[in-house]
Specification:
heterodimer, A: 5-stranded mixed sheet, B: 326 residues, two-stranded antiparallel sheet, 13 helices
């Protein structure tokens, strides 16, 4: 690293300390400050998504841009409690089978047509049912979706399903305009080129390979909002250039994986930036070492437990993720609902790992190797490559010889979904409820060849199946908690995968940005209340 | 001249055959890679179910047998239709033409710059063989030749953008500045400097080394001695006799480099966030966007074929002794 960069880094650090008290918290407006109109934000877009229509594509960057154009009925606070969005209020019947939503008045689509309950019925019953796997799972549980009047929508479920209230976030169920899509081939509709939503920002221009430009929607339903004149989403494919763009002020925000972990400590120290890991509670991904249970000795619980003892997960967090994230205790992330901390613990203990392997009769040969396995490295960037290298070293210490295999994203998806691997890494979003984001990895009914993010490892435990099934439909939060606590204890003891890290993503914000990260979906929020201080 | 026209006509016939073969090979090559667009999109959206995958595959036409897909594709290409990218929801030709100007701007400029400066540096080195000018050119050329192109790019950014603040670090133009006309052109030009230099440096080094070596070889040949004995000036000897003969290998190499004008700048386009064809190609590989990939391959193979023909013609112009068989 050149000398002056180091110097400016050090200067930034002292400045940051000096200003520590005066610096505003990320996202939180100070009481004394009044929002002001005007200004344009530059937000990174990485990677460039293929299309922006959120109902058709739910890739991460599509969500970040689409979340400003489209809206859902609800959003969620950082404790994952529902907040109003296009729905101003809602009721759930005592039997847990009827959900009634009352919509905001005076909401318009970007083309000026009014948004009504008919759009909600069309979106949930027709559009998303055809195009959106997660929405299909939620709304196919409905017996009937109806609109008694222009501003009321009623969802009647076939049977109670507690996580249903989590299904209305903007990427889970974005509202699509009926007047543009009804009766058309959704995926090939010419309207897809100019996305039309109800959000605070409307689509202006997309120069492929360079930027997406959104501008203020003057007829937005919240009076006086949004405050920004517009947002540029900038495509910067190289990680070093993205870091540079934050440093020199070209970008006012980066989110998710845009910044490589090893750049985080340096950028955190810069005087013009703040960093937060809040705003990802809805996603709360857990990364794990995935084990194909069809491959010996991975079908043996003792071997899987040995893996948990053999890997120094604190090291992974501190050295590979540079202090971002938490060491997980089990399958449910500690920042989401129904997390159970009281489960069997696996501290880093190679001796214990070796004892377990001995017990299995896996004796080391002359070279100290007990068994050989292949690890398919997840092709999601530098950090995952380093993780693969670390795992190889750590497991070699207890006599498990690892051969690393590499591929690209498409090859990885193909091999994992078709069970063509021995070990790999994986992480999934939890979507605010174990029934939505966790059970899919562990229940045997979800062992489906060719489907990514299903139970690809082939783990089957009837007890776990029964508990997850019961917990999804149990009527009260307390009953659900009891069932989920039980299933977590069983899973942690069974160790079907080697949980490695509760991932935290760094969001970098220019210090002048106010109100950016306020909910559990953070950077994917509408940004109608975001403003730039002078 | 008629010989050249006849040559071109014959070559054109062959070229069409080659192009068809290339398209067919590419088609099977592209489809042989593991993973398909449906798998990629499921991976990106973080959720999938069999109905979703089946729908995507049907929409992309991937549910039909491979030979049928190939037949459809060939028929379309013959009619000048490169297909439709379902991933990006745009016709492939439109996507390619959108990106082509940005790529050509960088690669052509770099090509001309590398060729001109490279030959010049090579001549200077050869004429001063063994002296300091020669050593300087050789050492710099070796350095530029041996250093990875992305590293040169990053260091150039560190020096000219971060430290000195002279040039923009990346991008095609200043986004949101609202420039037009000449002002916009200048702005784009400023953004072009670093990518062009980075790309040019490698080839410049190659041309310089090649020209130098070739010049030194030709310099000692009998016809040069004859020219000197005739009493020609040194300039005339170098220009008309040595350089003209020494240039043949350089032209060969330039022909090869010109073939890379379309697809050869992926790394530079990535480092400098340049919105060109290279990145479109790279994204298409990662996304398994078959129609786009095939389109790019078709474009670049056509380019290689055309430039090969052009190289042959230039051979004949530079050295009329060469008989290029059709």
């Amino acid at each position: 690293m050149p000398k002056t960069l180091l110097k400016s880094g050090a200067r930034a650090l002292t400045l940051g300390l000096a200003l520590g008290l005066a610096a505003p918290l990320p996202g939180a407006a100070l009481a004394a400050e009044q929002p002001t109109r005007g200004g344009t934000m530059n937000i990174v877009l990485q990677p460039e998504p293929p299309i922006l229509v959120l109902g058709l594509n739910q890739q991460g960057p599509t969500q970040t841009v689409g979340g400003k154009i489209y809206q859902g009925l609800l959003t969620y606070d950082e404790k994952l409690q529902p907040l109003p969005s296009l729905a101003k209020s809602w009721e759930v019947s005592p039997d847990g089978k009827t959900y009634t939503f009352h919509l905001q008045q005076g909401v318009k689509w970007h083309d000026g047509k009014p948004f009504t309950a008919a759009d909600v019925v069309f979106s949930t019953k027709t559009f998303l049912m055809e195009t959106h796997p997660r929405a299909r799972d939620a709304f196919s549980r409905c017996e009937e979706i109806s609109a008694p009047d222009e501003h009321t929508v009623v969802f009647k479920l076939k049977e109670p399903y507690a996580p249903f209230i989590m299904a209305f976030e903007v990427s889970s169920a974005p509202m699509m305009p009926r007047h543009l899509y009804e009766g058309s081939d959704f995926r090939n509709n010419p309207a897809n080129a100019t996305p039309i939503g109800t959000g605070p920002f409307k689509f202006k221009e997309w120069v492929k390979g360079q930027y997406v430009h959104l501008v203020r929607f003057d007829d937005y339903w919240k009076p006086g909002q949004p405050y920004l004149d517009g947002i540029y989403f900038r495509v910067i494919p190289d990680a070093a250039s993205r870091a540079l763009a934050l440093e020199d002020g070209t970008l006012q925000q980066t989110q998710f994986t845009a910044i490589e972990n090893f750049d985080v400590p340096r950028l955190k120290a810069l005087p013009n930036l703040t960093m937060t890991t809040k705003g990802y509670e809805f996603f709360a991904p857990i990364a794990w070492l995935e084990l194909n249970h069809r491959v010996k000795p991975l079908d043996d619980r003792r071997f899987r437990q040995a893996l948990l003892y053999a890997v120094d997960r604190q090291f992974i967090r501190d050295k590979l993720w540079f202090g971002l994230g938490r060491v997980p205790t089990g399958p449910i992330a500690s920042v989401t609902k129904f997390y159970e901390p009281d489960v069997p613990k696996y501290a880093y203990d190679p001796a214990k790992a070796k004892a377990l392997l001995d017990e299995m009769g896996l004796e080391p040969d002359a070279k100290g190797v007990r068994t050989r396995l292949k690890l398919l490295v997840m092709p999601y960037g530098e950090t995952w490559t380093r993780l693969g290298e670390y795992l190889k070293q750590a497991l070699a210490k207890v006599g498990i010889a690892i051969t690393l295999e590499t591929t690209d994203a498409a090859g990885w998806a193909q091999r994992v979904s078709n069970w063509d691997y021995e070990m790999t890494m994986d992480f999934t979003y939890q979507y605010g409820d174990p029934a939505l984001g966790v059970s899919r990895t562990y229940v045997s009914s979800n062992i489906r060849k060719g489907v990514l993010f299903s139970n690809t490892m082939g783990y089957a435990n009837p007890e776990v199946d029964a508990l997850f099934a019961k917990a999804a439909v149990a009527p009260s939060e307390a009953e659900r908690q009891a069932l989920y606590s039980q299933v977590q204890k069983i899973l942690v003891d069974d160790a079907p995968v080697t949980w490695l890290l509760e991932i935290e993503f760094p969001t970098f914000l220019d210090k002048r940005v106010r109100n950016a990260i306020t909910t559990a979906i953070g950077a994917n929020e509408s940004y109608d209340a975001v403003w730039l201080a002078k | 001249m008629t010989a050249i026209i006849k040559l071109l006509a014959q070559r054109l016939g062959k070229a069409l055959l080659i192009l068809t073969a290339v398209v067919i090979c590419n088609f099977f090559l592209v489809h042989a890679t593991p993973g398909d667009p449906a798998a990629v999109m499921a991976g990106e959206s973080g959720a999938a179910d069999p109905a979703y995958m089946a729908q995507l595959r049907e929409q992309f036409g991937l549910d039909r047998p491979l030979p049928v897909q190939l037949g459809t594709y060939l028929a379309k290409v013959a009619q000048g239709d490169l297909g439709y990218s379902h991933r990006q929801q745009k016709p492939v030709l439109e996507l390619l033409l959108e990106r082509l100007p940005a790529t050509l701007a960088v690669t052509l400029t770099a090509f001309v710059l590398a060729l001109a400066l490279g030959v010049l540096a090579g001549v200077v080195a050869a004429l001063n063989a063994g002296r300091w000018a020669d050593t300087a050119v050789t050492v710099i050329a070796l350095f530029a030749y041996a250093t990875p192109i992305f590293w040169i790019g990053l260091m150039a950014v560190l020096l000219f953008s971060v430290q000195l603040g002279w040039l923009p670090a990346f991008g095609f133009e200043t986004v949101g500045a609202g420039y037009s006309g000449l002002e916009r052109l200048l702005d784009i030009g400023r953004h072009m400097v670093l990518p062009v230099l980075t790309l040019a440096l490698f080839y410049l080094a190659v041309y310089a080394r090649l020209t130098r070596a070739s010049m030194l070889e030709v310099r000692d040949m009998d016809f040069v001695k004859t020219a000197r004995a005739k009493g020609l000036t040194e300039t005339a000897i170098v220009r008309r006799h040595v350089l003209r003969n020494a240039l043949l290998p350089v032209i060969t190499l330039a022909g090869i480099q010109a073939g890379h004008l379309i697809g050869g700048s992926i790394v530079v386009e990535t480092v400098f966030a340049w919105p060109g064809l290279g990145r479109l190609t790279f994204d298409a590989v990662l996304g398994r966007d078959y129609p786009v990939l095939l389109g790019v391959f078709l474009f670049s193979s056509a380019m290689v074929i055309v430039l090969n023909m052009l190289t042959d013609v230039i051979y004949r112009l530079v050295d009329p002794r060469i008989e290029v068989p059709a």
